[in-house]
Write a structure and sequence with these properties.
The structure is a single chain. It contains no helices and 14 strands. β9 and β10 form a beta hairpin. The chain is elongated and about 80 Å long. The protein is an all-beta fold.
Protein backbone atom coordinates (compact mmCIF):
# COMPACT_ATOMS: atom_id res chain seq x y z
CA UNK A 1 0.00 0.00 0.00
CA UNK A 2 1.05 3.54 -0.57
CA UNK A 3 0.05 6.47 1.66
CA UNK A 4 -0.33 10.11 0.74
CA UNK A 5 -1.73 9.54 -2.76
CA UNK A 6 -3.43 12.62 -4.17
CA UNK A 7 -5.32 12.54 -7.43
CA UNK A 8 -5.68 15.74 -9.42
CA UNK A 9 -9.05 15.83 -11.21
CA UNK A 10 -8.91 16.42 -14.98
CA UNK A 11 -5.20 15.51 -15.23
CA UNK A 12 -3.27 12.38 -16.01
CA UNK A 13 -2.06 11.09 -12.65
CA UNK A 14 1.09 8.99 -12.33
CA UNK A 15 1.57 7.05 -9.13
CA UNK A 16 4.96 5.42 -8.63
CA UNK A 17 4.88 2.08 -6.84
CA UNK A 18 7.87 -0.08 -5.94
CA UNK A 19 7.38 -3.58 -7.35
CA UNK A 20 9.68 -6.58 -6.93
CA UNK A 21 10.90 -7.39 -10.46
CA UNK A 22 13.22 -10.01 -11.90
CA UNK A 23 14.43 -10.69 -15.42
CA UNK A 24 13.85 -13.78 -17.53
CA UNK A 25 16.46 -14.42 -20.20
CA UNK A 26 15.70 -17.07 -22.82
CA UNK A 27 18.52 -18.29 -25.04
CA UNK A 28 20.12 -21.20 -26.86
CA UNK A 29 22.91 -23.16 -25.18
CA UNK A 30 25.23 -21.91 -27.96
CA UNK A 31 24.88 -18.86 -30.16
CA UNK A 32 22.23 -19.34 -32.83
CA UNK A 33 22.37 -16.78 -35.62
CA UNK A 34 18.70 -16.85 -36.58
CA UNK A 35 15.82 -17.90 -34.42
CA UNK A 36 12.11 -17.38 -34.67
CA UNK A 37 11.29 -19.58 -31.67
CA UNK A 38 8.91 -18.13 -29.13
CA UNK A 39 8.02 -19.03 -25.57
CA UNK A 40 4.63 -18.80 -23.86
CA UNK A 41 5.10 -17.34 -20.38
CA UNK A 42 2.40 -18.14 -17.82
CA UNK A 43 2.08 -17.63 -14.10
CA UNK A 44 2.76 -20.96 -12.38
CA UNK A 45 -0.37 -23.11 -12.36
CA UNK A 46 -2.45 -20.70 -14.49
CA UNK A 47 -3.52 -21.61 -18.04
CA UNK A 48 -3.77 -18.03 -19.31
CA UNK A 49 -0.76 -16.84 -21.32
CA UNK A 50 0.82 -13.77 -19.74
CA UNK A 51 3.26 -12.95 -22.53
CA UNK A 52 4.86 -14.43 -25.66
CA UNK A 53 8.61 -13.89 -25.43
CA UNK A 54 11.08 -14.42 -28.26
CA UNK A 55 14.14 -16.57 -27.71
CA UNK A 56 17.41 -14.62 -27.32
CA UNK A 57 15.65 -11.84 -25.40
CA UNK A 58 15.40 -10.74 -21.79
CA UNK A 59 12.18 -9.41 -20.21
CA UNK A 60 11.28 -8.14 -16.77
CA UNK A 61 8.43 -9.72 -14.81
CA UNK A 62 7.11 -9.54 -11.27
CA UNK A 63 8.95 -11.93 -8.96
CA UNK A 64 7.39 -15.35 -8.52
CA UNK A 65 7.11 -18.67 -10.31
CA UNK A 66 6.32 -19.03 -14.00
CA UNK A 67 5.63 -21.87 -16.42
CA UNK A 68 7.41 -21.68 -19.79
CA UNK A 69 6.34 -23.46 -22.98
CA UNK A 70 8.82 -23.24 -25.85
CA UNK A 71 7.18 -23.50 -29.28
CA UNK A 72 9.78 -25.87 -30.71
CA UNK A 73 9.55 -29.34 -32.20
CA UNK A 74 9.03 -31.02 -29.84
CA UNK A 75 7.60 -28.49 -27.41
CA UNK A 76 9.54 -28.05 -24.19
CA UNK A 77 7.76 -27.12 -20.97
CA UNK A 78 9.50 -25.87 -17.82
CA UNK A 79 7.27 -25.54 -14.77
CA UNK A 80 7.89 -23.43 -11.69
CA UNK A 81 10.78 -21.31 -13.00
CA UNK A 82 11.42 -18.85 -10.18
CA UNK A 83 12.25 -15.18 -10.75
CA UNK A 84 13.90 -13.37 -7.85
CA UNK A 85 14.07 -9.66 -7.19
CA UNK A 86 16.81 -7.80 -9.09
CA UNK A 87 18.18 -11.10 -10.48
CA UNK A 88 18.28 -12.56 -13.98
CA UNK A 89 17.06 -16.12 -14.40
CA UNK A 90 18.38 -17.70 -17.60
CA UNK A 91 16.75 -20.66 -19.32
CA UNK A 92 18.78 -22.23 -22.12
CA UNK A 93 17.55 -24.63 -24.78
CA UNK A 94 19.88 -26.98 -26.62
CA UNK A 95 20.51 -25.83 -30.19
CA UNK A 96 18.25 -27.37 -32.79
CA UNK A 97 19.27 -29.74 -35.52
CA UNK A 98 17.87 -29.80 -39.04
CA UNK A 99 15.97 -32.81 -40.34
CA UNK A 100 15.64 -33.26 -44.10
CA UNK A 101 13.15 -35.91 -45.16
CA UNK A 102 13.17 -37.13 -48.76
CA UNK A 103 10.35 -39.37 -49.97
CA UNK A 104 9.74 -41.01 -53.34
CA UNK A 105 6.25 -39.50 -53.43
CA UNK A 106 3.99 -37.28 -51.28
CA UNK A 107 2.48 -39.05 -48.31
CA UNK A 108 1.43 -38.94 -44.69
CA UNK A 109 4.05 -38.87 -41.97
CA UNK A 110 4.46 -38.30 -38.26
CA UNK A 111 7.43 -37.80 -35.97
CA UNK A 112 7.55 -39.41 -32.52
CA UNK A 113 10.03 -38.59 -29.74
CA UNK A 114 11.40 -41.26 -27.42
CA UNK A 115 10.77 -40.17 -23.83
CA UNK A 116 12.61 -41.13 -20.63
CA UNK A 117 10.43 -44.20 -20.06
CA UNK A 118 11.28 -45.54 -23.54
CA UNK A 119 7.86 -44.84 -25.04
CA UNK A 120 7.32 -42.82 -28.20
CA UNK A 121 5.09 -39.74 -28.15
CA UNK A 122 3.86 -37.94 -31.27
CA UNK A 123 5.43 -34.49 -31.61
CA UNK A 124 4.75 -33.52 -35.23
CA UNK A 125 2.37 -34.37 -38.07
CA UNK A 126 2.92 -33.82 -41.77
CA UNK A 127 -0.70 -33.77 -42.87
CA UNK A 128 0.41 -34.17 -46.47
CA UNK A 129 4.16 -34.43 -46.73
CA UNK A 130 5.77 -33.28 -49.95
CA UNK A 131 8.65 -35.16 -51.56
CA UNK A 132 11.14 -33.02 -49.62
CA UNK A 133 10.66 -31.48 -46.18
CA UNK A 134 13.07 -29.58 -43.94
CA UNK A 135 12.27 -28.90 -40.30
CA UNK A 136 14.21 -27.86 -37.20
CA UNK A 137 13.98 -30.16 -34.19
CA UNK A 138 15.56 -30.27 -30.76
CA UNK A 139 18.24 -32.92 -30.18
CA UNK A 140 16.91 -36.36 -29.31
CA UNK A 141 15.83 -39.81 -30.45
CA UNK A 142 12.93 -39.97 -32.86
CA UNK A 143 10.84 -42.30 -34.96
CA UNK A 144 9.50 -41.24 -38.37
CA UNK A 145 6.44 -43.12 -39.67
CA UNK A 146 5.56 -42.58 -43.34
CA UNK A 147 2.98 -43.97 -45.76
CA UNK A 148 2.72 -42.93 -49.42
CA UNK A 149 -0.50 -41.14 -50.32
CA UNK A 150 -1.18 -43.48 -53.25
CA UNK A 151 -0.97 -46.61 -51.07
CA UNK A 152 -3.89 -48.16 -49.24
CA UNK A 153 -1.88 -51.04 -47.77
CA UNK A 154 -0.41 -50.86 -44.30
CA UNK A 155 2.52 -52.95 -45.59
CA UNK A 156 3.75 -49.83 -47.40
CA UNK A 157 4.28 -48.03 -44.07
CA UNK A 158 7.94 -47.15 -43.47
CA UNK A 159 9.50 -46.58 -40.04
CA UNK A 160 12.89 -44.93 -39.48
CA UNK A 161 14.59 -44.54 -36.09
CA UNK A 162 16.90 -41.53 -35.95
CA UNK A 163 19.09 -39.52 -33.56
CA UNK A 164 19.46 -35.78 -34.06
CA UNK A 165 22.17 -33.68 -32.43
CA UNK A 166 22.57 -29.94 -31.91
CA UNK A 167 23.69 -27.94 -34.95
CA UNK A 168 23.61 -30.98 -37.24
CA UNK A 169 21.82 -31.77 -40.48
CA UNK A 170 20.36 -35.25 -40.89
CA UNK A 171 18.92 -36.51 -44.19
CA UNK A 172 16.47 -39.40 -44.15
CA UNK A 173 15.39 -41.21 -47.32
CA UNK A 174 12.00 -42.90 -47.12
Amino acid sequence: TKDDIRLNPGKHNIIGVDLPMGSLKLSWSKIELQSNVQCLVRQHGVDTTLFVQDLNTSMRYLTGKYDLEFLTIPRRIYEGVELKQSKTTEVKLPNQGKLRIIAAEPGFASIYEKNESGDYQKVYDFYLMQKRELIEVLPGRYLIVYKPKSSYDCEMTIERYINIGSNTMLSVNL
